[in-house]
Amino acid sequence: MTLVLGMVFVFGLVLAANFVTAAQKPQLNKLFDLFLILINLPIFFIGALLLAFPADLLSALMQGSSLPALNWPAAGWTLTGMGLWGVLVSLRPVRQGLGRIAPLNADLPMHTLALVLSGFLVGNTIFSLTQGGLEELAATAVSASIFDILLMQALFVGVAVLGIGLYIRRTPQDARQRHG
Questions:
Q1: Domain ranges for the chain
Q2: Do 48 and 80 form a contact (C-beta atoms < 8 A)?
Q3: Number of Cβ within a 10 Å radius of residue 177
Q4: What is the pTM of this model?
Q5: For residue 79, which of 37, 54, 51 has the smallest C-alpha distance?
Q6: pLDDT per position as a tens digit, 51-64
């Protein structure tokens, strides 16, 4: 259920980025950048707080909870990195610098959101692998039904379709022409 709520949040961000892009108003672009910064600052600060407290204290505080034991320093560094990446790529000068080495448009909210979400994807992978490696990941794996798998695939396809702006910024013919 948490995963579905996360995907709904991502759907909302993608929709917002599409509407801001379609509006073609520089003020809305700046507000969207600020919104992304405000989303990423708490992630950065939570990561910094995890690094500020001793791992033993955090483990003792979480003892008795239903949450699995965590590698607190790795979690702190990962969240700090994710938040920092999200804040940095939400700044237009940083995106302009990245635009010199990668094919992106620093002025498009969709490109900004794609950079932020790519940082979340990398951070999630690093977080998963630093919490005991593949062995621990396999030990905590939960079997998924075919419905769960199909639902996740449908959500990813939905994000991809929304990401290209189908029916918001592009007609189906425009999308087909743009993306083959």
A1: 2-60+69-179
A2: yes
A3: 10
A4: 0.80
A5: 51
A6: 998 887 877 777 77
